[in-house]
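Practice problem: predict the structure.
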Amino acid sequence: MDTVYPFILPKGYLATDGAVHREGSLRLATAGDEVFVLGDPRVKVNRAYAVILLLSRVIVRLGDLGDEAVTPDVIEELFSVDLAYLQTHYRQLNGDALVPETCPHCGREISRDR
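Answer:
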């Protein structure tokens, strides 16, 4: 069974050295990932932060960054279009789970009827 899936970000992560990282891969989320995220104090204050933490746990590679380099700080620095892309990619692989859909322009959570 495949558990790691590639992606290419629409814009890419702009690192502090000026390099742009677009290609990466993420793994399927585990129950432990979701439990960890729900227990984080930042999520208790702002549920929308769950997407930041969850993506930082399941992205196993982003460009030439090292394996441990995809931190919540990196996810926070993504362009909104890339965050929206990753949320959609995550949802396609894992189901809705904890990743809320957010507006790429204002960052507010979107509720959609399915």
